[in-house]
Amino acid sequence: MLLTEIDHVAIAVHDLEAAIAYYQEAFGAEVAHREVVESDGVDEALIKVADSYIQLTAATRPDSPIAKFLEKRGEGLHHVGYRVDDCAAALASLVEAGGRAIDEAPRPGSRGTTVAFVHPKGSFGTLIELVQE
């Protein structure tokens, strides 16, 4: 089994501060990590839930994938991040099984992780992020 845990569930939002405030008020949640990922054009806040996270993510520029998603679909579930021990091996396995890689090779992600995305058209309609810590 290449998947070790669910790393995070990502939710795309227009207003990150409002989303953080909602999770704080509704659930008593605290932000465990906050980071702007310039390469992806996103500002993210991670809320720890057991050993996983809820990733609230907003666009920092109009050409980012999150901005395009929000324009087309509105706020909501964006992707699921699965933890793996070896991102390259997991990506190769997904492609071999018929998945469509968005990232040709693993790349740096937030929190010092290594990540790779798999297109929803090759994974039953769900955008997948592979996350190696």
Strand content: 35-45%
The percentage helix is 10-25%
How far is the first residue's CA from the last residue's CA? 17 Å
Level-2 CATH architecture:
Roll
Return the structural class.
alpha+beta
Q: In CATH terms, what is the fold-level topology? A: 2,3-Dihydroxybiphenyl 1,2-Dioxygenase, domain 1
Order of strands across the biggest sheet? Answer: 2-3-4-1-5-8-7-6
- Please tell me the overall pLDDT: 96
Find the CATH superfamily: 2,3-Dihydroxybiphenyl 1,2-Dioxygenase, domain 1
Number of helices in the DSSP assignment: 3
Tell me, briefly, the overall form. globular
| Helix and strand run | EHEEEHEHEEE
User: What oligomeric arrangement do these chains adopt?
Assistant: single chain
Spans of at least 5 consecutive residues with low confidence = none
Domains, number: 1
- Specify the CATH class: Alpha Beta
The tally of beta strands, per DSSP, is 8
Write down the Rg: 14 Å
Task: Briefly summarize what is shown.
This protein is α+β, with helices and mostly antiparallel strands and 133 residues long.
Key phrases:
133 residues, alpha+beta, 2,3-Dihydroxybiphenyl 1,2-Dioxygenase, domain 1, eight-stranded mixed β-sheet, 3 helices, 8 strands, globular
Description:
The chain is of the alpha+beta class and 133 residues long. It has a single domain (3-132), classed as 2,3-Dihydroxybiphenyl 1,2-Dioxygenase, domain 1 (Roll). The protein is built from 3 helices and 8 strands. It has helices spanning 16-27, 65-73, 87-96; strands at 3-12, 31-37, 42-49, 52-59, 76-84, 107-108, 114-118, 128-132. It has an 8-stranded mixed sheet with strand order 2-3-4-1-5-8-7-6. The protein is globular. The relative contact order is 0.20. The model has no long low-confidence stretch (mean pLDDT 96).
